[in-house]
Design a protein that fits this description.
Layout (H helix, E strand, L loop, with lengths): L1 H27 L1 E3 L1 H15 L7 E6 L9 E3 L4 E4 L8 E8 L5 E18 L14 E7 L18 E2 L14 E2 L6 E7 L4 E8 L8 E6 L5 E8 L2 E5 L1
Parallel strand pairs: 10-14
Antiparallel strand pairs: 1-3, 2-6, 4-5, 5-6, 6-7, 8-9, 10-11, 11-12, 12-13, 13-14
Family: Belongs to the FlgA family.
Protein name: Flagella basal body P-ring formation protein FlgA
Main location: periplasm
Length: 237
């Protein structure tokens, strides 16, 4: 009787163990539906992207067809960027698995990099002198901006608009200047004990604090000076 009971217990343990192994193997062979694939792509890209200063990043994995058949994978899927893809505004993530059946799928991903920048509060036309009330701050996707933008209004107040700017549009460095190429400027040369002024012509565009080349109208000599105001540059003697 004792032997029979022992054999019965052993048999039950073997069955229970086999069931546990089967369940473990079943759990190991994960089923990845369209949402799980999107999540894999989203998390992969998010781990690679760095947010801009004082900004944030938003990752959006494009929706896959919800009717797609869930994919089986008995191991951790390999996730990487597809060929010729990287951390641009648009990228493609490749997800690959070798077992139980080899498969590969691609997930398009959109990368947004948001940052607060100075934008136009009102429409502005060429020649307009920028005042503080003309400016506001908005969060924009800097991937859509082609040149340098501003995070402080101080540099722009008093500048001249060079091309039409729409309301809500980020103001770019190429849109404005305090000293504009080809226009007359006042050259201020000063030291601790002396200050003299001369007339000149700007040879490049510049905003406050930037170094620009100017030409002395009287001597025709060119020099580098710092933009200190509207149509004004300063040289330290």
């Amino acid at each position: 009787m004792i032997i029979r009971n022992s054999l019965l217990i052993s048999l039950l343990l073997i069955i229970a163990h086999s069931g546990s192994v089967a369940n473990a193997n079943e759990r190991k062979s994960d089923s990845l539906d369209h949402k799980a694939l999107q999540t894999l792509a989203h998390d992969f890209v998010k781990a690679q992207v760095t947010a801009p200063d004082n900004g944030r990043v938003e990752i959006v994995a494009n929706n896959l067809d919800p009717r797609m058949v869930a994919k089986k994978c008995s191991e951790q899927p390999q996730v990487s960027f597809a060929s010729n893809s990287g951390l641009d505004s648009y990228t493609t993530v490749e997800i690959e698995c070798a077992a139980p059946t080899a498969w590969r799928t691609y997930v398009p991903v959109r990368i947004y990099r948001y940052k607060p920048v100075i934008t136009a509060a009102v429409p502005m036309s060429p020649g307009h002198l920028v005042s503080e009330s003309d400016l506001t701050t908005q969060e924009v996707d800097i991937n859509r901006i082609r040149s340098n933008v501003f995070t402080s209004a101080d540099t722009l107040v008093g500048a001249r608009i060079k091309r039409r700017v729409r309301s809500g549009q980020p103001i770019e460095a190429s849109d404005t200047c305090l000293v504009c190429s080809g226009e007359k400027v006042t050259i201020v040369a000063k030291s601790k004990a002396l200050q003299i002024t001369a007339s000149g012509k700007a040879l490049a565009d510049g905003l406050k604090g930037e170094s620009v080349a100017v030409q002395n109208t009287r001597s025709n000599k060119s020099l580098e000076a710092i933009v200190t105001g509207l149509n004004e540059v300063t040289v330290q003697l």
